[in-house]
Protein 1
Amino acid sequence: MVDLNLSRVCYQIDKSALISNVSLTLTSGDWFVIAGRNGSGKSTLLRLMAGLLQPTSGEILLNAKKYCHSPNLNKELSVMSQKNELISNLTVIELVRLGRYPHIPAWKFGLSIEDHEAVEYAIDFVGLNQYSYRAVDTLSGGERQRAFLALALAKNGSVLFLDEPTNHLDIVAQRQVLNLLGKLAIEGKIIVTVLHDLNHMARYATKLALLREGNLFKFGSLDSVYTSLNLSKTFDLDIEVIEFNQFRSAVY
């Protein structure tokens, strides 16, 4: 069981508060979606949770240990980046191998059998076996996203962070990526995503945070947070949540 806890986390730049007093708890199997208007602090909160930014105050703990006191933190947290241009000229298998570097001791040269198995598993999981030796920049948008998801998976961390993973993808590729993330949550990983599509949130999230100007307006289970009133207040828009074929949908 994995626990990720934020306690009164704040982040500011030049006395400007970007994140204010955020507290929440996630456990194994949670698919946590961060939502809100542009500039509400979604990406900043995700970067804090991923250890890419240091809180101005407050604590973030993984399994009851502060990030700064967790020696294996780099192995436990996997981030799927959107800024991929510098390594997109690699082949798929070369790219995914990069995910194993945190597991290689400084004194050791090359990948172990376990590392190679983890790489093969990640590529197979995202369905890119036939493209292992293709250059990443020759893949379609959806295939490229799955390649970078495999890179994050190869690390075999317990928490996976993705900032707008469906950006610039068609609806088929979006569904493929989101379904893969759903499988990972079922396997027990914590999935943390920033999503803009209200209907994707309703279909996939188990926990939801709604941000307003860096403040945590609402946090909790999808059932408790994904309501017409909460969404309308978050986005300053008249939004009605309806149920259709056992799924919720936001109409606005």
Protein 2
Amino acid sequence: MAQSQPWQEIPTTLSVEEFGQFVWPHLSKGRRGPGRKLSAHAMFNYILKALYLGCQR
């Protein structure tokens, strides 16, 4: 009998710890312009969600 493969889901959210470990070291902080209203962690999670859902009309 063939063994079933475990499904690997596409991540749509990262915890703050995962974001700090894997993503934050690769980002640079802007020097000019107004401050952000959302954290970089929240923006990254929104981008992941948009990529997962795709463009919808």
